[in-house]
Each structure stands twice: as C-alpha cells, then as structure tokens.
Design goal:
Largest sheet: 5 strands, mixed, barrel
Strand order of the largest sheet: 1-2-3-4-5
Structural class: alpha/beta
Strand content: 15-25%
Number of domains: 2
Distance between the termini: 54 Å
Number of helices: 6
C-alpha cells in the first residue's frame, strides 16, 4: 500500500497550492523541496523583485515632488538596507508557506527527489540532512519550476561577478554603475526598472519585437 496518495515534487506556487488542495480533498499528501518552501517565485523571483521595485519607486518619486508643490533635500538611499528588506519579505513569505503546510497536514520532505518507475510510484529523496528516503505514492505531481538560462556557447554564464543570473541581481554586493539585461520578460524589466531608478545606466536587449 502506498505511503501517500500524492507526492508533489517542488514547492513553488504551482506545487504548494496543488498540495494544499489535494489535502483539502482528503488525500494524504507530501511535498518535496530541495531548497526553500515557496520555490523560485517566493524566494528568488516575483516576490522579492516586487519589494525591490517598491523601494525604487519610492526613491524615484522624490524627484517629482515639485510637481505636487513639495520639496526635499538630501534624499539618499541605503542600498544594503533595500536588499535586506527584499530578502526579509521573501523570508516572511517562506514562513507563510511553511505554516500552510502544517495547517493542511502536508508532510514536508527536504531534499532532492528522483522519480522511479513503478506502481505505486517511488520517489527517492536525497535528504538535506543526509542519507536518503524512499516514499511511495499513488500519484506524483512534478512542479519543478524555472531555471536561469545561461549561454555558455557565447561566454554568457553567470559567474557572480560580471555576469549575473537572478540570484546575483537580487542580492548584489554593490550597485552597478551600468549593466545590460538580456531578455525583456517580466523579471528582466523589473530588474531594469529597479536599477535604473537608483541611478544605474541600464540597457535591455531583446531578440523579438517589443
């Protein structure tokens, strides 16, 4: 007999919402996450970028005070504090997902999952804490999320220094004077808008029409 009715691999917005609904419908459910509950979106994507954007918008709005009959002097920003606020927002959301897992009686298994063929399905998890665990499930949902794309064939591979992926852009050590954003999707333009608001010289490169 299978240990779980459903095992969800990946705890991003697709995965954890599916797990919650399954549990609400009476299925014994587990979720496997190798990094942080909430996945890329909550921890390294749409949520922390929105926090950065809000800081950028607040600072940029100071340059338009005159339009409203207002004035201020000595406006400045603390770049490290802005980044820390963004990371704090992500951490709060992560705790919120953990609470939802507990509330809905969903077992969280921390580690990297490997799916083996069979009926019931077997999910082998290399546990974060060490060792491994194999769980059986009647059904499995793969909610594996997104990954940053690199282009090593033309020398564009994130190195944490000159070439960034989303993680480096969300938690940089200093504000860059200038940089190029390759790709004009939502996340790319959010980064471009944030850094431009704080004074960086930003260029966006996109292969297709606007």
């Amino acid at each position: 007999m299978a240990e779980f009715d459903l095992v969800v691999i990946g705890s991003g917005p697709g995965g954890y919402v599916a797990a919650i609904r399954a549990s609400q419908l009476g299925l014994k459910t587990a979720i496997v996450e190798r990094e942080s509950l909430g996945g890329i979106c909550l921890n390294w994507g749409c949520i922390p970028t929105k926090a950065l954007l809000k800081s950028g918008e607040k600072f940029e709005s100071l340059s338009h005070l005159k339009e409203y009959g207002l004035s201020a002097s000595g406006a400045a920003f603390d770049f490290d504090a802005i980044i820390q606020r963004s990371r704090g927002v992500a951490a709060t959301m992560n705790k919120g997902v953990a609470y939802l897992m507990k509330k809905n009686k969903i077992e969280v298994i921390e580690g990297s999952a490997k799916l083996e063929k069979g009926s019931p399905a077997k999910v082998v998890v290399a546990l974060k804490a060490g060792g491994s665990r194999t769980v059986e499930a009647k059904s499995v949902i793969l909610a594996l999320g997104a990954r940053a794309r690199s282009l090593p064939q033309i020398g564009l591979e994130a190195d944490g220094d000159k070439i960034w992926a989303y993680r480096e852009a969300l938690a940089p050590k200093k504000l860059p004077k200038s940089f190029v954003v390759i790709g004009s999707g939502a996340i790319g333009l959010e980064f471009a808008s944030f850094y431009r608001a704080l004074g960086s010289d930003v260029t966006v490169v996109e292969a297709v029409e606007r």
